[in-house]
Amino acid sequence: MGRKYEMSWDNPKKRWAKMHHGVRFRVSCLELKCHPSREGSYILANKWWLSKLEQIKTKPIAEEYGPGLCEIDRRISWSKDNDSTLLPSLANARERLLASTPDDIPLLGEEEIEKGVAAAKLLGVSISKRTPPLALETFFGDKGLWSERVSSSSSSSVTEQTIGFCLTSFLDSIRKTQKPGSYKDISSYFNCVNQSNIWSISNNVNTITAKTVDDHYRWLLNKQYTPAAHKKRLHFFRRFVGWLYDLELLDNSPRNLRSKSQNKKPIHREITTYTNEVVKDTINNLPYHMQVWALLALNCGMTNADLGMCSWNMIDDDWILTRRRVKTGESPTTPTVRYKLWDRTIDHLKQIEGNHKGLLFLNARGGTMYSSHYREDGSPAKKDLFYLYWKRCNPKPPINLSSFRSIAATTLRTSVVYRSLDDFFLAHVPYTVTSRFYAKESDVVFFEALEYIQKTIFEG
């Protein structure tokens, strides 16, 4: 069954709209407090419109006074938030307008107009009965006053225009698409920004200007982040400001928001390498149940997350492990890689106690060794017992667990024949056109490359 949309989706402005009897109703994803996409907001938009429809009287509205009714509704909306004493007179004007006929439409602010006309007569100014109603309303009514009132008050409340409120809405909107670890990085970064002098969360979002962008850049420089960390945090800031502009919460996007001069030039970083003797000694000195972690990292290029999510059903009867990288596994371009396990890796796996079903590695209580998820309150949570046990190991290993996949990839680089397989070994998303669309890696050649890693490290 297809989806039913009660309203029309306005993608550039990330909002829904509905024309009803000459009056256009709009609601933004920010007001609905949902993800700014059609699929992520249409259910709430449908509920919002059905609720709004119940508030609208069922009596057909004459097309001639549709704009007048819209104007009264705007004034009523403003009065609810700013001056409730005006509500009775506005409600009365709305009822008179609905009860009128197309030939006898009352003017908005009719009492003010009558007072203005009477004052003009006292000054000797004669007003013809044929004067157009629009002219009477413009010169003698309170249209100018209401225009100033409504224009000075945005469609959102003052609270909804503050940086703090919008930042909370932004974080809520990205929680559905970000993994817990990434969301934690983003939220922690903005907590640091809020504690700085870049902005005040109580200020209006339109106080974000080119100066704010410059202040943020100088603040980042003082933090002395690495080029990669600097670039990532700069992206977080740009993403939030761009989100404000896309939803029309920010009137003008700062011109220097995407300035290349704010990027930090990357500095060459040497990759730490280890001799084969150090690698072998490190593995041999580990407790037996931890040696298989290092072997899988060498044999299959696994990270801690990959180890934690690895299960027995990924290994077939020929001891070939098939996996996708956990970090980018949801991306359709992430390759599915088959790894032929070494004999020494197989021997260690056979020693794992249990029925060899479910996850490969469990803690003493039968729980997971690694998890990354959101708690019920929406906050991110991460558990990495591989890292914790490795850190507490005595004596402390000279090589971090996360470094073993780097050691294996570096070993591949020493071979003229297999050096091009390093990205495939690490299960990275292919970046060349040939790798993405035309050529598929051969299992035979890749299995030979894995054997080359084993011989070079353990027999070289």
How many strand segments?
Answer: 7
Q: What is the H-and-E element order?
A: EEEHHHHHHHHHHHHHHEEHEEHHHHH
Number of discrete helical segments: 20
Evaluate the radius of gyration: 33 Å
Task: Compute the separation of the termini in Å.
Answer: 63 Å
Percentage of residues in helical conformation: 40-55%
Share of β-strand residues: 5-15%
- pLDDT below 50 for ≥5 consecutive residues: which ranges? 58-64, 154-159
- Shape by Cα distribution: elongated
- How is the largest sheet built, in terms of strand order? 1-2-3
Oligomer: single chain
Structural class estimated from helices and strands: mainly alpha
Q: What does the main sheet amount to? A: 3 strands, antiparallel
Overall average residue pLDDT: 84
Report what the structure shows.
With 460 residues, the protein is mainly α. The protein is built from 20 helices and seven strands. The strands form three sheets. Strands 1-2-3 form a three-stranded antiparallel sheet. A two-stranded antiparallel sheet has the order 4-5. A two-stranded antiparallel ribbon has the order 6-7.
